[in-house]
């Protein structure tokens, strides 16, 4: 058991109950990889939090940093980020108090993006010019899931069109990937006129999951879940899974480590710190697919 997954023994991997993690892994491994589905957040979970000491952009930040919007709008969006992001990650405030503020942030940002009359064909260039980076080991993560036909649901409160472009440009947008996110609605001349459907923000992923019961219904034969997130709101992403048997939750703790350590250890089975690579999720997937 000691060396079941050696990557779990690293100093940057924290676990409150290692034995429980091993029991979950043993049970999932016994069931086989054809019973597995992976659900992952995108921004700052599949993408890096920082690189060379500089913050990496989220989907929203990619647009904000691009030529698709004016300097004035960029400044307003940056001000919004500095107002609301500290609230998003503040563990001293209850979620019920943060929720309306998150709706306020996303709504103001989306309204501003719509006012900018962004063109659909500007998105690819915005992503190309950005400093967005998938975490190290992403090729192995996406390719291995594809090779073993394991469904990957990327569940993001970011912007679906941008997210898709990031993984397309990295050549890992395989057919086993499904995205639930905020998608842009363009008019017939390709100009952004609204965002489609119900808003997904950081603390309503449970509602988002329940609106997509069809996806989870299709995956009913896969009751074992590997969940990956960087926020406590991401823990609700699997709420639509049918007849769940096991769930292994891997959390990336990117920011405010000291303040948030305990709540992450209490909520995620495995916590990765220090802008970790995808080495641990990849090792888990290798273990579960039998490619040890
Ligand atoms: N205007 C905004 C709104 C949100 N964010 C960040 O996006 C992330 C949400 O996406 P997930 O893939 O993690 O669900 C979240 O980290 C917000 O801080 C933003 O940058 N700008």
Explain how this protein is built.
With 292 residues, this protein is of the alpha/beta class. It has 2 domains: 6-49 and 133-289, HAD superfamily/HAD-like (Rossmann fold, 3-Layer(aba) Sandwich); 51-128, Pyrimidine 5'-nucleotidase (UMPH-1), N-terminal domain (DNA polymerase, domain 1). Helices cover 41% and strands 17% of the residues. The chain contains 11 helices and 11 strands. The strands form 3 sheets. It has a 7-stranded mixed β-sheet, sandwiched between helices. Strands 3-4 form a two-stranded antiparallel sheet. Helix 3 packs antiparallel against helix 4. The two termini are 14 Å apart. The mean pLDDT is 96. Residues 41-44, 58, 60-61, 81, 85, 88, 105-106, 109, 156-158, 202 line the site of the ligand Nc1ccn([C@@H]2O[C@H](COP(=O)(O)O)[C@@H](O)[C@H]2O)c(=O)n1. It is found in: Cytoplasm. It catalyses: N(7)-methyl-GMP + H2O = N(7)-methylguanosine + phosphate; a ribonucleoside 5'-phosphate + H2O = a ribonucleoside + phosphate; CMP + H2O = cytidine + phosphate. Monomer.
Note the main attributes of this structure.
292 residues; alpha/beta; Rossmann fold; 7-stranded mixed beta sheet; 11 helices; 11 strands; 41% helix; binds the ligand Nc1ccn([C@@H]2O[C@H](COP(=O)(O)O)[C@@H](O)[C@H]2O)c(=O)n1
């Amino acid at each position: 058991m000691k060396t079941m997954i050696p990557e779990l023994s690293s100093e940057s991997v924290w676990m409150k109950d290692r034995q429980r993690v091993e029991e979950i892994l043993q049970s999932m491994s016994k069931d086989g990889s054809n019973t597995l589905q992976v659900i992952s957040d995108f921004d700052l979970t599949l993408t890096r939090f920082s690189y060379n000491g500089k913050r990496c952009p989220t989907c929203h930040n990619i647009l904000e940093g691009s030529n698709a919007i004016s300097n004035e709008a960029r400044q307003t969006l940056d001000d919004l980020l500095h107002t609301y992001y500290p609230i998003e990650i503040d563990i001293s405030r209850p979620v019920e108090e943060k929720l309306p503020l998150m709706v306020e942030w996303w709504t103001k940002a989306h309204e501003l993006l719509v006012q900018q009359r962004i063109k659909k064909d500007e998105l690819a260039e915005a992503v190309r010019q950005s400093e967005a980076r998938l975490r190290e080991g992403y090729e192995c993560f996406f390719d291995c899931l594809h090779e073993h036909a394991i469904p990957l649901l990327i569940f993001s409160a970011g912007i679906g069109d941008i997210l898709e472009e990031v993984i397309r440009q990295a050549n890992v947008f395989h057919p086993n990937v499904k995205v639930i996110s905020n998608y842009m609605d363009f008019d017939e001349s390709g100009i952004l006129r609204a965002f489609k459907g119900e808003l997904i923000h950081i603390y309503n992923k449970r509602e988002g999951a329940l609106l997509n019961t069809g996806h989870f219904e299709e995956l009913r034969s896969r009751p074992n879940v590997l969940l990956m997130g960087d926020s406590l709101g991401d823990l609700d992403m699997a709420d639509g899974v049918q007849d769940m048997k096991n769930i292994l939750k891997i959390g990336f703790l990117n920011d405010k480590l000291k303040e948030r350590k305990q709540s992450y250890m209490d909520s995620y089975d495995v916590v990765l710190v220090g802008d970790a690579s995808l080495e641990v999720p990849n090792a888990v997937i290798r273990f579960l697919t039998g490619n040890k």
